[in-house]
Amino acid sequence: MADTNGTAFDIVVLGGGSGGYAAALRAAQLGKTVALIEADKVGGTCLHYGCIPTKALLHAAELADNARDGAHFGVHTSLDHIDMNGVNEYKSTVIGRLYKGLQGLIKSRKITVFEGFGKLVAPDTVEVNGERVTGGHVIIATGSYARSLPGLEIGGRVITSDQALQLDWVPKSAIILGGGVIGSEFASVWKSFGADVTIIEALPHLVPNEDEALSKAFERAFRKRGINFNVGVRFSGVTQDDNGVHVSLEDGKTFDADLLLVAVGRGPRTSGVGFEEQGITLDRGFVITDERLHTGVGNVYAVGDIVPGLQLAHRGFAQGIFVAEEIAGLKPAAIVESGIPRVTYSDPEVASVGLTEARAKEVHGADAVETLEYNLGGNGKSQILGTQGFIKLVRQKDGPVVGVHMIGARVGELIGEGQLIVNWEAYPEDVASLVHAHPTQNEALGEAHLALAGKPLHAHN
User: Fold this and answer.
1) Where is the domain boundary, 337, 365, 396?
2) 185: annotated binding-site residue?
3) Into how many domains does the chain fold?
4) Catalytic residue numbers?
């Protein structure tokens, strides 16, 4: 542990995940002295237990599908078996390289790191390992944990994503409780690895936070892949024995499998860290802030998964940078939540930014919104890749595009342009005049805007 000899810092950051370390790096870049307190490893859930390891598994799953389906492309390959020890070694190598790089960045910015569990004991002080670390400003970024349902205990064959990422075997069958991002990604991986997968989702659709058109297309794609799902009925209970898990729903249906993965979202990690004692307002465990991410207490700010809203690493990065610049007096523009891109990295991928059609109609009025869907069937690169899907645009009539929604292989790589379109309030005519390289999937975005601008090229009017 670093020894400060009682020295105060300009900024103390409690939590070294995406939001916390981004705040620390940017603050140090702006000339602030920074203490970063982390109970586990810098990089947090995203690097060690979430985004990065799951995407490593998804890439391995894609390779498995490619090997299995090579004959469709005239390449006669076959899939021998999935070596989970080898997959996990590859995953750990990726994490290790990124972790080493992050540690180097933190060291180069002269950020003082305290390893240990920190607790806010005053509006300007965090206690860690019996030592009090004081700052002119405090940024709390304690992250999230894998939630369960009331009465549903994790253990044995009932696991969360934390345990799923450590499995050294592929289940023959798995039930996944939750059809959101985490559940859908694990369903995709395990199906590619050869498991029989069933998703249980209480809401009417899989990926229920997406535009309904995407959710329905996603369900069709999963059905085609042989991924089973049951939507619209709540989970009732689970028992387990040596043979597996036995899941029941409120309508009386039952399902049996080797494992039950509980993927019902993530809860804010705010218990036992002193927030309420210092007067910080919590709502269902989340820290309530204003649009400048200030907690209303002293010089305490909050970023990342503990702040209500999208629980995404890149949101945490953006909020960390924002708060560092806010403290430095740069007066950054407030982050617009709807302008943050969202991606489900399954097969197929789902990517979106801005308002869904339903939300746009709520905001602007049903008669003031128009939409367009451009099918990837007309896109050359998508045909080469053998993927199906579409791009859906939502715009204000005679106004800017307010939502971009996509489904298909690799569409997550297109969301960068999508967020520029939405956040810069581009009109379809603005994007239609841009030249998109051919043949790329990115070209489909251009084609969709050409069509919405009233001059479709590779699409029927």
Assistant:
1) 337
2) yes
3) 3
4) 438
